């Protein structure tokens, strides 16, 4: 179950080099995954007061609601145990869970963005910066639930 939850979080927050269905969601993020993640996304929405509209805007490249989006991302990453002791995304989890054809692109982009935005006291700000960095590098594969 922990592995499935970690996979769900990763798929929700980040990116795979696949076409989108309904110009909205990567093909591999099924309705079942969306339903499985719903309690976690709802919890983080409640905790951070982020709205569906703010998340939708981020998915179209509008990052004007930075702080709240960063806090929402960080909340999900924490709930899914995707962060190590240095507050970096555990790429080994991603590597173990994703199909081979997606690993290189995703891990390289994550490592690049984490290097550009090293850990700092404001975890929400860093999470936001990593999300925005990822979108700038690979907007066609970015997706946040």
From TrEMBL:
The keyword Signal belongs to this UniProt entry's keyword annotation: yes
Record SUPFAM superfamilies: Insect pheromone/odorant-binding proteins
Keywords linked to the UniProt accession: Signal
Keyword field contains Transcription: no
Signal sequence coordinates: 1-23
Transmembrane portions of the chain: none
Gene Ontology MF: a single term: odorant binding
Protein name per its UniProtKB record: General odorant-binding protein 83a-like
Originating species: Cephus cinctus (Wheat stem sawfly)
């Amino acid at each position: 179950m922990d592995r499935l939850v970690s996979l769900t979080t990763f798929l929700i927050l980040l990116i795979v080099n696949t076409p989108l269905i309904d110009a909205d969601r990567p093909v591999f993020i099924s309705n079942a995954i969306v339903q499985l993640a719903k309690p976690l996304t709802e919890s983080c929405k409640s905790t951070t007061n982020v709205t569906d509209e703010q998340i939708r805007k981020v998915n179209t490249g509008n990052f004007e609601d930075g702080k709240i989006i960063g806090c929402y991302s960080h909340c999900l990453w924490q709930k899914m145990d995707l962060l190590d002791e240095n507050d970096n995304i555990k790429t080994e989890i991603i590597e173990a869970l994703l199909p081979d054809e997606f690993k290189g692109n995703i891990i390289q982009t994550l490592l690049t963005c984490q290097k550009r935005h090293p850990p700092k006291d404001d975890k929400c700000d860093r999470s936001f910066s990593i999300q925005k960095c990822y979108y700038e590098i690979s907007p066609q594969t970015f997706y946040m639930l």
